[in-house]
Amino acid sequence: MRKKIFFNNNIPLPPLELLHFFFFALFTSLYTSLAQQLPREPMEWRRTYGRAPKMILLEANFVQFKEELLPKEGNKALLTFPFLHIYWTDCCDTEMYKSSVKEDMMRWQNSLRTHGSSDWVIIVVETNDTKKKNKTNILPRSSIVDKIRSDFCNKQSDRCVVLSDPLKDSSRSQESWNSLLLKLRTLLLMSFTKNLGRFEDEMRTLREKRTQPGWSFCEYFMVQEELAFVFEMLQQFEDALVQYDELDALFTQYVLNFGAGDTANWLGSFCAPVRNWSGLLLRRPIDMEKRDSIQRGEASLLDLRSYLFSRQCTLLIFLQRPWEVTQRALELLHNCVQELRLLEVQVLEGALDCWVFLSCLEVLHRIEGCCDPAQLAANCSHTVGLWAAAHTGTVLQSPYKKLKEALSSVEAFERHYLELSHAAMEMYQAIGRLRSARLVGKSLAEFYMRKGDPERAETFLQEALKSYVSEGWSLPVTHTRRQVAECQKLLSKTEDYLQTSALLAGDVNLTTDERKHFCQEILSFTGKSGDQSHKVTLSMGVFAQLTQLKFHPAAASVHSGAVLQVELTLRCLMPVSVRIQQLVASIHFEVDHGGTHGRSKGAQRRTHPGTVVFRQSNSSAGPPSSAGAGPSLELDEIQDRSPSDNSLNSTGVICKNTHLLMRRHDSNSPPDTPNCISPPTVGIKEGAQMLKVQDVTLEPGNNSITFTAPPGTYTLRQLCATVGEVQFILPHIYPSAQYEVYSQEPQLTVEPLSEPLLAGLPQKVKFTLLTGHYTVKKGDALQLSNTETMPILPSTKLVGESTLSIQSSEKVTSISLPPAPPYHTLEFQLEVLCIIPSGADRPANERLTNGEVRHRPRSYSHPDTPMTAIDQRMSIDCPWSIYSTLLALTFYIPFKTKHSLLSAGNRQYIQVCVQNVSDVNFALAEVKLTEKQHASLELQSLNTKTQQLLCCKHSVFCLWEVRWKDDLPSCLQCVFSANFSPLSQDISAYKPFHYQFQLERVTTLYSVKAEIFPPAGEQRCRSGVLCGLEVCITRLTEPAEGEIAEDSKTETDGPKTTKLMYEVADSSSNWAVCGKSSGMVLMPMTANATHKVQIEVMPLFAGHLPFPKIKVLKYLPHTAAVAIQPDPDSCVENDSLSLLDKTLDDQGDTASIRSRGSVHSVGSGDQQQKGVAMPRLEPFSPGQVFNHSHACQVLVLPATDDHIMEVNAT
Amino acid sequence: MNTNMAVCIAVIAKENYPLYIRSVPTQNELKFHYTVHTSLDVVEEKISAVGKALGDQRELYLGLLYPTEDYKVYGYVTNSKVKFVIVVDSSNTSLRDNEIRSMFRKLHNSFTDVMCNPFHNPGDTIQSKAFDGIVSGMMVQTA
Fold it and tell me: Where would you find this protein in the cell (chain A) (predicted)?
């Protein structure tokens, strides 16, 4: 027995059909495993038109072959299409094949051919049973297969497959089973591709015919949907969806064309009036009811749209894209409404809303059904639109149950409406679409208002208003604010209502009539003579804006007695003129106004002097520029001055309003929003000082109001306008404006006309008198105490209109002042001369006229200049004060003077050096040196010029020889004097300059003469050879009085002697001193006493060597030192001298030193006497010792040429 | 009525206040203000979504922000976060995405010109005649 099997794709809808015969038992067992195993492995599906290949799993239904099931020509059904025909046979008998099987196959083939199907396969099943049965007639299996192949499969040998022992579990049977599966898959796919391609081509052809009359969209719809079904069965949902989307687009295009006047006949059925508005139905995968109506061409527009969408929805959910469903749903809803309008379909009132609403809920329901809640929440943004759409259904319906319930009663309707609205709002808020949420809230508020619940409405409105204000949307602000006003009026929130009314009255978006209405609302309230306690405080910003503040005079600073006016410019926002009972500006007294007299501050100074312009934050309308850009930078200069001398330490710029600028940006409510959300609670400060004007009428637009300021330093703080019971308050005037009405003490200052003031020359100084509050009367005078060191020269002149008279008495110079009003400046110049202190003498303190101890000007060196400075103080008695004014002027001495004594043997010279340390060139004349005490002394000038130029930074040296008759006095009191004048001026301007100095111990006591002798037998000294140095110290004079007194204490008997110490020191390392280099000499104190010392020295170099230096010092024994100040530096008790001692000639004396030292070291000495008792060395004054051999040189020959330098010239 | 046009065109500052908003005079101006304001929600959403993904290489055109029954609202954001919003009548089916795009481009060019005006203070509302003219050209003309 044979069975032929037809393969088909696994399509759920059509029934199974068996097409051929086979051994039933065998077939059923094979059928199940075939149907199961066929889709186990995917096949690569290569597609036409360049579409990407896909891996697909093939499923198949096996149906028995019946000829009538073969597709007729023009059959569009793809679902029931037989893709592969299989002929099964287990025939292994040649006879049997020839007799019946072949014939049957031929018949089968013929019927296939007549229906144009070339997709077939013959399967030869081979079992052991069949072989055993007919052993005799058996042919090799291959021969049957070969026969079949040669009979049917010319050139298509793969159309015949052998399946061996399918019911056995052998590897051989398994292998043949697998190859069968593969073969079937391949053939099936081939056929499928071919047939699908043909189907698509036909479909396209059909679509191209759409312009022909009689073409029906519904018919075409069914064809393309067939394709979609096939894709869906192949799990190719994307492709399936494309089919529906194409249908959707095609239909949309037709509707649009209809709107444009291009009508297609078939559209007529869609233009029928809407009778059914049952909404979308998404629960079933295929809404057969609607599908049938489409097939019959009876579907309405909503039916078609609903069916199309339900299919798209199903596929999208298969594709795991539920969010697209909601998005498409929203588009669909809007689109359908549009399409119905375009097609001019008659719709019952409310039917459409009903359909929209039901559809929304259905979509939401479907989506919720297929998603978990978390996903749902995360994707609220997709659903929220639907919620909102459901909510906006103007007349509210509910689906099925809800609809009936809602329509049954007003209460239920409200409940559902609120529920939906709140749901939509919450969702909007959750996804951050706050603006949308507020808009829903606003319509909710409108609903509440209609219901007469203004309280709830206000919350929503305020919320919305806040957002519009903060983002600067003026039109919505105005609209919402009007609604708010309505609420507030109903709620009797008087203050809020007035505030809002004021804002609306000044709102340019409203008509003048409307504005007047709101203005009137305020005025009528103020007109009510209510109880006094009920005062309403509103923000000034809603009523009028302070635009400018101007001070007259501009400095904003006047002295008391003058008038300071403050002019405010108020821009009144009201549409009509408003009469104000009182306008008050409160002012705050500034305590710390230290050094700001007569100067205006910060803000005023920066722009135009005296004018503060206030930036406007637009209260109700327009862009919130202040909110966007922030407040402007308010910069001020700072200077850090040293507290002691007011010198500048540092300077910089500070920002005064950082607290406004540095705010976090996310918390930005505009800095000043008079948006009526919360009226200002700040009242005007009680008890503050105020500027007031009464009864002002503010016209719309700019108004100017002038206040007069009271004395003091004040900052303007607040502004308050009172209209009846209403106060409009500007709680903070910013930027701050400050003014000052001040009172000032008279001030007298003296400053040099030119810097620096030079001592010794007439110098001009400027007196500046700020009269302050004091009026200078006739006869008022300044009394200057005269000082010797700084006389005032009678050359005064006044800078100004009248002259000044100066009277000088012995002690006082009186300057009479011209009469002057307060806060006036008087300036005049005086010429003064600071006498250069001559140096030595310092008379005792004198007393000034006022009894004060006169301060001697003290000279000191100034760090900035090489000149010596003198501070000259002036004491001035002023008519306005009982105290004297002390002023100081600093003068600089232009010269530095030095003197020195020079001697040559017995002759003495005095040299004076004058150095010009100023920046001025001087002429120096009449240079003189005098000695005060000794008339017999003659100072002979060695200066040739009578007048000398002394340029700046240069020096002049003057020299005198001292000549005396009897004895040269040991102390000379000298005065150097010269006349000097700035080079530019004539002789008459010469001023004297004195310099006193004292010279002591000028007499030459000793002369020191050194000689160097070459070694014995040599003519010259040689380097490296010892030579002799003979030092000859000669006493030149008899001892003077003082000198004896100094030394007499030790040596009372015999001839007076004194001890000298000499020291040979060669600082330039030319000489090596061999043996002792220093020693003590006992010198008789008589003239011409001589002492010679022999010392051995060795020249170290050849050439003209300067003599080694010989120092002679006074040696003071310990007892002699009592009168002399101890000088630790010259103490003998040190190591160097101890070493020196060993070489001294005078052993006795050194011993005494030693013993003294040792006594001291044992500690028995008087500690108090210690310093005084030390033996000391003291240098002689310059000129007391004359060194003959100073700067002498001796020729030293090179050492004997012991070493021959070999020079080899090769 | 020329249907190939917008019914409302708005320019919104970075801080979300309107720099310019104009609608067809016969229609409800207030409603457009509300619509444009609400559309900023979607604009912000789109900007933040795109910003994360592509950084600065985003496209300025934001596409359809949201449809309502009566209008379609399209958005565009400049690199300086200035937003352009064009509202089109829903019944106006002749306007395609490309046309909307080119409208925005024209608007953007004109806006750039306004910003280039040295006398214009950035952040102030736009009061340029040239800009007005461009907008008028894109708007529905009601005679």
Answer: Golgi apparatus
| Tens-place pLDDT, residues A955-968 | 889 998 888 777 77
Is residue A1135 scored above 60 in pLDDT? no
CA dist., res. A693 & res. A705, Å (int): 8
- Mutation target to probe the B interface, by most B beta carbons within 10 A, among A253, A332, A334 is A334
Whether the pLDDT of residue B44 is over 50: the answer is: yes
CA neighbor of A386 nearest in space, from A352, A360, A365, A354? A360
Report the C-alpha gap between A1205 and A1203 in whole angstroms: 6
pTM above 0.90, yes or no: no
Give mean pLDDT, residues A92-97: 73
The domain defined by B4-135 carries CATH number 3.30.450.70 = yes
| Nearest chain A alpha carbon to B71 | A334
Listed range (A323-332, A386-395, B84-93) with the worst mean pLDDT: A386-395
Query: Does A330 sit within 8 Å of B67, measured CB to CB?
Result: yes
Q: How many CB atoms lie within 10 A of CB B17?
A: 22
In chain B, residues with a C-beta closer than 8 Å to the C-beta of A327 are none
Q: Concatenate the DSSP letters of all residues of A919-948 into one string.
A: SS-EEEEEEEEEESS-TT-EEEE----SEE
Q: What is the pLDDT of residues A247-289, one digit of tens each?
A: 888 888 888 887 777 777 777 777 878 777 777 777 777 888 8
Higher-confidence position of A620 and A593: A593
DSSP structure string for A1048-1106: TTT--SSS-EEEEEEEEE-TTS-EEEES--EEEEEEESSTT-EEEEEEEEEE-S-EEEE
Residue A103 has pLDDT above 90, yes or no: no
Distances (CA, A) of A842 to A29, A830, A871: 147, 28, 16
Q: Do A331 and B18 touch (CB under 8 A)?
A: no
Of the residues A394, A425, A435, A509, the best mutation for testing chain B's interface (the one with the most B CB atoms within 10 Å of its CB) is A435
Q: Look at A622 and B125 and tell me if their CB atoms are within 8 Å.
A: yes
> Contact, A671 vs A476, CB < 8 A?
no
Q: Which of B13, B18, B37 sits opposite A435 (nearest CB)?
A: B37
Q: pLDDT band at residue A375, thresholds of 50, 70 and 90? A: very low
User: Is the separation of the CB atoms in A274 and A340 below 8 Å?
Assistant: yes
Which of B19, B91, B125 minimises the CB distance to A341? B91
Who among A330, A334, A433 is closest to B41 (CB)? A433
Nearest to A720 by CA among A709, A711, A728, A732: A728
Largest CA distance in chain B: 46
Nearest to A476 among B34, B66, B91 (CB): B34
Rounded to 5 degrees, φ, ψ at B18 are: -75, 130
Chain A residue numbers touching B30 (CB-CB < 8 A): 475-476, 479
- Give the pair of three-digit tokens for residue A138: 């058996």
Kind plus residue range of the DSSP H or E element containing A301:
helix A301-318
> What percentage of chain B carries pLDDT values higher than 90?
35
Res A172 pLDDT > 50: yes
Where are the extended beta strands (E) located within A627-745?
635-641, 648-655, 689-698, 701-708, 712-723, 726-730, 737-742
A438 or A1136, which is more confident: A438
* Domain assignments of chain B as residue spans, ordered by start: 4-135
